[in-house]
Amino acid sequence: MKIHEFQAKRLLAEAGVSVPRHVVAKSADEAAQAFDDLGGPLAVVKSQIHAGGRGKGRFKEEPEQPGVTLVKSADEAKANAERMLGNTLVTIQTGEEGKQVNTLLVEQGLDIARELYLAVLVDRETKSPVIIMSSEGGMDIEEVAAKTPEKILQEKVDAGYGLHTFQATNLAFQLGLEGPAIRAAQKFLPQFVRFFLDSDCSMAEVNPLVVTGDGQLVPLDAKVTFDDNALFRHKNVTELRDLSEEEDSEVRAADAGLSYVKLEGNIGCLVNGAGLAMSTMDLIKLHGGEPANFLDVGGGANVEQVTEAFSIILSDDNVKAVLVNIFGGIMRCDTIATALLEAYDKIGFSVPLVVRLEGNKVEEARKMLADSGKAITSATDLTDAAKKVVAALGDSQSSPQE
To answer: Is 161 considered catalytic here?
Structure first.
């Protein structure tokens, strides 16, 4: 689960991590008042969306207006807010569709001496958290990793204890920090890592982490995502969820208890089991197709859930064919067949449908589909299913169905 920058900074402050003074604004007048409340000669007006690259992004209707801008008066804050709010911001992470800006963060200007990069995430290879830092703050970390990987520093984190002081000191020296900045790093970095661990984050990133003129470390940005499986422990975090920032179909699937991720292909997939779902997508690509989604109905889905799964898949206008791949262990194949036939009547399939069933109650299920008289193509195994759905997709595009 992702949250906005202003929400992340509030949680960081509650955890004892120092953050810049800021005010949240939802109107131009509030932005102007925020500038006055901060009381400084400079402030930064920041668009709040679930995407990075906001400073380099541009608005669709105001292409000269960046997503983050420096202002020197309340009037400037108000004018920039008027151009930002309600407009669609396009960044390298949003894609061409962009995201609408509904909230702004007005933040105090800082005396910036240096910019660093900081992130804490889970390293799947070492199976432990790791802190990553770089002297190249403010840049895309992917670009730094590709061009100057030697500038990326890493320290493995003890998941129980957190970041040791000697590790923070080591990172500070490697980054070339001096005097007060080293002492600031010895305090700030362990606190930031502790926030990551205590909050069950999957990633916490600050880009840039600035070193001020007096040697303090301050997060100029904050991007935090949380492990969905641990949200039951953090009610204060779940309350921060912004559904307007999420894919409608993914929200709908989550409400139905389904694991669904929208992709960019044109072959819809309905599978039970995450591993089988990934294998299904791989075989579709192997045989020349592109999956439109990851969808795992799980091992105990009922007729209503499976019907909703078909509805979600077919609500995607990009879907031109559907592949159902079910291995009946806990899930009975005849349950899937019943749901499939109900969905066929209720929703209507205007695209080719290929079904591969195996396992518990498979013979009953196959007979149900065969006796239905509906335009359903059966497959004997997964490879056969992938080949047939790709072929059916080609046939449908050359001869569109009515």
So the answer is: no
